[in-house]
Design goal:
Elements lengths: L2 H19 L3 H38 L3 H5 L1 H23 L21 H10 L3 H13 L6 H26 L2 H9 L1 H24 L1
Length: about 210
């Protein structure tokens, strides 16, 4: 990798890191699964979220994601589906109830009725703004002369950074030092997450209608 390409890769990595760390519905979903299902479920959510990011990155470098952002009906369809999904997740959070038999002393062992792999992936897949983000980013660093190994490196970087960040989040919130306190109040955290997700869905609906 040349010095210029190395500098470009650092730019891509920095922007991807900032995008991953920005708070939003993805963070709420990872936190919810980590607190309800322990480290195992939080990690599964993080990994499936990273796979969704990696898929969008690959679609963007291959040019297929342009279809989503250049065809208004497809884009709006994804936005509406994403908003409906956020509402569904939000209602689930608002209906959360404390479970009398849950034991939180061993992070990662608790089994729940939630589906972390599904939620982690769909929260990305049903968000066309991810495609917009990657198209805007990769259009600055990829040209027709850019080799496929280099394009794949950029996409792999986005996948790795996103997965690593949310795995860190899942491990941090399930640390034994504060896991018990967080999970003791998880029902209220669930409801806060539910309100946040519904508010994000409302904003997405308004953006789509406008």
């Amino acid at each position: 990798m040349t010095e210029l390409n190395y500098a470009t890769w650092l730019t891509v990595a920095g922007i991807c890191a900032l995008g991953a760390m920005s708070p939003g519905p993805s963070l709420a979903v990872v936190l919810r699964h980590a607190l309800k299902g322990g480290r195992r479920n939080g990690s599964i959510t993080a990994i499936s979220h990273g796979l969704g990011i990696g898929l969008y990155a690959l679609l963007c470098i291959s040019g297929l994601a342009v279809l989503i952002t250049t065809h208004e009906n497809i884009y709006r369809g994804f936005q509406f589906a994403g908003a409906i999904y956020l509402v569904w997740l939000g209602i689930g959070g608002l209906r959360s109830k404390p479970a009398e038999s849950e034991q939180f002393s061993e992070p990662g062992i608790l089994a729940t009725g939630l589906n972390p792999a599904r939620d982690g992936f769909l929260i990305v897949f049903l968000n066309p703004k991810v495609a917009v983000f990657f198209i805007a980013l990769f259009s600055q660093v990829i040209s027709p002369e850019t080799s496929w190994p280099e394009r794949s490196l950029y996409a792999g970087t986005a996948w790795f950074i996103d997965t690593a960040w949310y795995l860190i989040v899942a491990f941090m919130v399930t640390h034994q030092r504060w896991l018990g306190t967080l999970q003791k109040h998880s029902v209220w955290l669930d409801r806060v997450f539910g309100i946040v997700l519904i508010m994000l869905a409302g904003r997405l609906f308004l953006e789509t209608l406008n």
